[in-house]
Amino acid sequence: GWRARLEALRWRGIVRREEKEPEPLYHATSACDGNALARALLGDDEGDCRRALQAGHLEALRSSRRPPPDTSLAAAGNSLVLGEPILAVRFAMRARSRMACTERDAALPALLVRILELPAETWNGETGWGAARALLLARARLAELLTKLGRFEEALNSLGARSMGGPRWYETKRQWIRAEVHERSGDVSSAIEALEGLRKTGSGSCGSRGSAVVTNLASFEAAARLAALCFRSGKIAQGRAYLEEGRGLLQERWSLPRQERSPLFCKVLGLFASAESAHGDAGTAVRFLEEALRLAREWRRNDLSLRPLNELGILYGQHQRWSDALGTFEEIERIS
Questions:
Q1: Which residues contact 288 (CB under 8 A, 6 or more apart)?
Q2: pLDDT tens for residues 292-316?
């Protein structure tokens, strides 16, 4: 198999192995450039080798384990060469966004651009997962990554104009990304407009009805982001009103269905904490963060624990709770 070929090349000094979980990564050494490595690895029958690689990638795709982002990106590129664009999009969706945090890691956006530039006839006859869905997912993913790279105009252009006949899930996703672009680029008024538009178009209401919470986490997320934006734009009364929505959520969180207390719920708590810390009450911010941390520990999700731990450590320090601050930073070291 391909792993045996890579190991053989390693013993010949052509590649080096980097131990990673769940599987190792192989890199060309200085003794071998990328083209020479490809010839050594693929041999005379590139097509057969690419199809064998794809079979392994498909097996990983069907399993519950998530391969390293480099592996998913390689699988996407391999599928594109084999003329299977929908499969390329599916693998690209598996590549984590951390690959595009800097220009050095811009390989995934470049791959998505190649997919979106394919001629229309490439998609003819594609069934199953759906060509239309794949194209929209690629468009949205590309916009998200360009936003992280600070390429805001390109991100907006990649989303395209609003389509009245487009699927609702995409129009909603498109609006969220537009809000993110405007917020990151400093266009606060446009970000507020986009987020308020999301709340008006069926995101759900926020507030109490008896002892039950009529909730939609997407609407609460918009409220948390709007709170900070309103304070930035001088709309103090509106900002405080949005903070009150978050306090209501925190007070009645135990009445939420268990499925609502999800990773998104942790994110919402963190957003409200940031808004409270900057514009409201630091003690309330601490309660938001402690609840987010409690849930992350309950789910054994270290990735969800890091941000609340860091922000708690800072707030504890500001209030001279030195032992608590030290404990949070020690926990960050343990789980990082």
A1: 246, 250, 269, 270, 272, 273, 276
A2: 999 899 888 898 999 999 999 999 9
